[in-house]
Amino acid sequence: MGETTANTTQEKAPKKSWFKGLKSEFKKITWPDKDTLVKESAAVIVITVVLGFVIALVDMAVNSGVDLIL
Question: What pTM was computed for the model?
Answer without folding.
Answer: 0.57
